[in-house]
Structures are given as structure tokens and as C-alpha cells.
Design a protein that fits this description.
438 residues, mainly alpha, two-stranded antiparallel sheet, globular
Length: 438
């Protein structure tokens, strides 16, 4: 029965991710209720399993209530042909200049909370299935991207990269899955060595990692390749540390392994440098790129200065920004600040951002109350957990130069990784140092 319930929870979570990444928009009202509806079903399906600590639930509820207050206390109303018109509201309190956009964020927030809860609740076997299936899906996506880039006269910027509208969003997706594929390969190798099998599925997942890396090189996302280099280097460091701590559980790292690892990191770094060099061959190109990006940030901060304490409200940036942009941006459609910390500051203000940081601290400081028996060496929390942590860090780095939090699939995938990372975190009082000898 527990296996059946876990399978249902896993199926609902996969369905949520598929719905978030579906390239075609569904008709109303399905488009409004699908993600939050699936989120509610997932939360109900989580009840028979271990649930996140109380502080995580309080943080999630506080976030949803906080955003709902923004939407309820609307400061403006959108009127077709006239734009934003002021309306009566509670002054000096959180208020949204575009309540419709804020309610969209609230509905997505329900799905985000459900994804975190599902990641925390899923048993280890189902987490393995989820990671394996998504890693293979990433390999298939990489093949699609490679095929797109091999088309004759393929443009630098395409309408789609895989299922994403540009290469930078695909790079975030790839860097979310690359650590999972590589660590899954390492775990398969560990298991094969420990039981004495001559072969394992490790080669398949290493192939997926290679395909992801090739697709990243071909789509030429500068930030994507730089962060990919970080992930590959971190993988070899964690792999080396694991073999040093568990020499009896796997094949010790040989000199050839260290040489190959160093070469792969150098090759990845070389492709990242090449991408920057191809993009910025001339000084005027660098100046133009910087002027465009810095101009967006400058005008976004002007919008923040107009309402510095509580901001303009979650989801209001695309509607409010045109009122502050200069004439040179009039021919562009600027929907995001291309920097998540700045956009959060604009939408929530410094007081709202401080509240969000407190809520985030409540989530990331949570731990399990009791330890979970681990049947594998090295323990799940001492190995696979690093993969999800690296993916979360990669997402955070992308957020400094792009807007991945505005893409539902990327946001929900990261929320799931956060839940899994929290679920694998050992209790503070029962953390054990890894054994160094048999």
C-alpha cells in the first residue's frame, strides 16, 4: 500500500512538472486552476508520508498569505486603453499595482509549496526513479537541441531551444539536471562495485551528461557553460572526497581518473571562455550589452524608489516597468529585470524582501527530527544530496543574470530539488562522520 501511495505521489509530481512545461497554453479556466489544483492534490497525497517540519509549513503559509494581502490591497487597477489607474487602498501597507499578476504568482506559489512538500515526502526509491526519468528526459531534450543547432543556417537566437524560448532558459534546465545525471551514474557504479557486478547503468547516465554538455556548447549560453564548468568541477571534488572517505566501498580514485577529471574541467572552462570570446569580440559589443542590461536595472531601481518599502507587488513588474523605462527601450518588451534579486526588491520592497529572507531562512534551516536508516554506502545524505545542492546553487547563479524564477517548469523543478535536499538533511544531533576504514 505504501508503495502504491508513493507511486501516486510520484505520478502527480511528474504530472505537475509536465503541466508546467507544456509548450501550449491551455484555455481558461484550465490555465488558471491546473497548477494550483495539482498542487492541492499533491499536498493531500503527501499526508501518509513524512512531512516537512512545522517551520517549513509556517514559512509557506506566511508567504502565500503575504502575497494574497498584496493582491487584496490593490493600489491600482488596469483599464484597457488607459493603463494603471489609482484606486483607494490601505496606505503604508503592502499593495499591488497589478493584482491580476499577483494572483497569478499566488496560484503558482501553491504549486511551489506542493513541490517542496512532495520532494521532502518521496521515499528514496521514488526519488531515484524521479531523478532517473528526468535525467533521461534531459538527454532526449539535449538531442533535440543538438538537432536544432545542426539545421542548415540555424540562427544564433532561435524561437525555441528545446521547449524553451531561448538558450538561456534551456541552460538553466540543463544545469538543474546535469548534476543529477552525473551523481546517478556514480551511484550506479558504487552499487556495481559493492555487489560485484561487472557492469552497471552508469554508462547510460554518463552519456546523458555528455549529451547535455554538448547541447550546452552548441546553444552557446555563456552563463550556462560557465555554471556547467562549476558543476563538473564540483562533481569530481565530491567524487574524490567520497572515495577517500569510503575506500572500501568503491574503486579508489586512480591517477588516470584525476587526469581525466582535470582535463574535462579544463575543456569545459575552455568552451565557456570561447563562448564569451565569440560573443564579445569587439569592445563596442561589450559596451552595448552592458548598456542594455544596466539600463534595465537602472530603470527598475527607479520603480523601486517610487515605492521603496513594500514595492509594487509580486507579478506587477511587466506592467509597471514601462512607466519608468526610457524612450530607447520603447521598442523592446521588457517583462523582467534580468536579475532576480533586483526584481524581488522592486516587487516586494526592502521590508517585503526582509520578510522573504526570514521565511527562506526558516525553510533552509529545517532538519528532520529523526534519522532515516540508510542501507547504502555512502549514505544518501552524504552523496546524492550534494547533487541536488549543486543544482540549487546553479539555479541561484543563473538568477543573477537571468529570470529563471519566472519560468514555471524551472521554478517547480528547483522547488522539488529543495524538498529532496531538505529531506536528505540529517538531524543535527545524529550526524555521523563517515567511516574511513572497514
Amino acid at each position: 500500500m505504501n508503495t502504491l501511495r508513493a507511486s501516486i505521489l510520484l505520478a502527480l509530481l511528474v504530472l505537475l512538472l509536465v503541466a508546467a512545461g507544456w509548450p501550449a497554453q491551455l484555455p481558461e479556466p484550465w490555465n488558471m486552476v491546473l497548477l494550483p489544483g495539482l498542487g492541492v492534490l499533491i499536498l493531500l497525497a503527501c499526508l501518509p508520508f513524512r512531512l516537512p517540519p512545522l517551520r517549513v509549513w509556517l514559512a509557506a503559509l506566511g508567504w502565500l498569505v503575504f502575497m494574497s494581502f498584496y493582491a487584496w490591497n490593490a493600489s491600482h487597477e488596469w483599464t484597457p486603453g488607459l493603463g494603471l489607474l489609482p484606486r483607494e487602498h490601505w496606505l503604508h501597507w503592502p499593495a499591488s499595482a497589478y493584482p491580476t499578476g499577483t494572483w497569478i504568482v499566488v496560484r503558482l506559489g501553491v504549486a511551489i509549496c506542493a513541490a517542496v512538500a512532495a520532494g521532502f515526502a518521496l521515499p528514496r526509491r521514488q526519488v531515484g526513479w524521479l531523478g532517473g526519468v528526468l535525467a533521461v528526459a534531459a538527454g532526449v531534450m539535449a538531442l533535440v537541441v543538438i538537432a536544432q543547432r545542426l539545421e542548415p543556417s540555424a540562427p544564433r537566437f532561435r524561437e525555441f531551444t528545446g521547449i524553451f524560448v531561448n538558450e538561456n532558459h534551456y541552460a538553466v534546465f540543463a544545469n538543474l539536471l546535469l548534476p543529477i545525471a552525473l551523481f546517478t551514474a556514480c551511484r550506479a557504479r558504487f552499487r556495481a562495485v559493492q555487489v560485484g557486478f561487472p557492469s552497471s547503468p552508469a554508462g547510460l547516465f554518463y552519456l546523458v551528461g555528455v549529451l547535455i554538455a554538448i547541447s550546452m556548447v552548441m546553444c552557446q549560453s555563456r552563463a550556462g557553460m560557465a555554471i556547467m564548468t562549476f558543476s563538473i568541477a564540483a562533481l569530481f571534488l565530491v567524487r574524490w572526497r567520497t572515495t577517500a572517505n569510503y575506500p572500501f566501498a568503491t574503486v579508489p580514485a586512480s591517477t588516470a581518473f584525476k587526469i581525466v577529471g582535470t582535463l574535462l574541467v579544463m575543456v569545459s572552462l575552455g568552451f565557456a571562455v570561447r563562448a564569451f570570446r565569440l560573443e564579445w569580440r569587439e569592445l563596442e559589443v561589450i559596451v552595448r550589452e552592458w548598456a542594455f542590461r544596466s539600463g534595465i536595472l537602472k530603470h527598475a531601481l527607479e520603480a523601486w524608489r517610487a515605492r521603496p518599502i513594500w514595492g509594487i507587488g509580486p507579478g506587477a513588474f511587466p506592467v509597471v516597468f514601462p512607466y519608468y523605462q526610457s524612450a530607447e527601450y520603447a521598442r523592446h518588451t521588457i517583462l523582467h529585470a534580468h536579475n532576480e534579486p533586483v526584481q524581488f526588491l522592486v516587487e516586494y520592497g526592502w521590508a517585503g524582501l526582509a520578510i522573504l529572507l526570514v521565511l527562506a531562512f526558516m525553510v533552509f534551516s529545517a532538519r528532520r527530527k529523526t534519522s532515516i536508516e540508510e542501507g547504502e554506502i555512502p549514505a544518501y545524505g552524504d552523496f546524492e544530496r550534494h547533487a541536488f545542492g549543486l543544482a540549487i546553487v546553479a539555479f541561484a547563479l543563473h538568477s543573477l543574470v537571468d529570470f529563471p524564477l519566472r519560468i514555471p517548469l524551472l521554478t517547480l523543478l528547483t522547488a522539488t530539488w529543495i524538498g529532496i535536499w531538505l529531506g536528505a538533511r540529517p538531524p543535527r544531533s545524529k550526524r555521523k562522520r563517515p567511516a574511513t576504514q572497514a
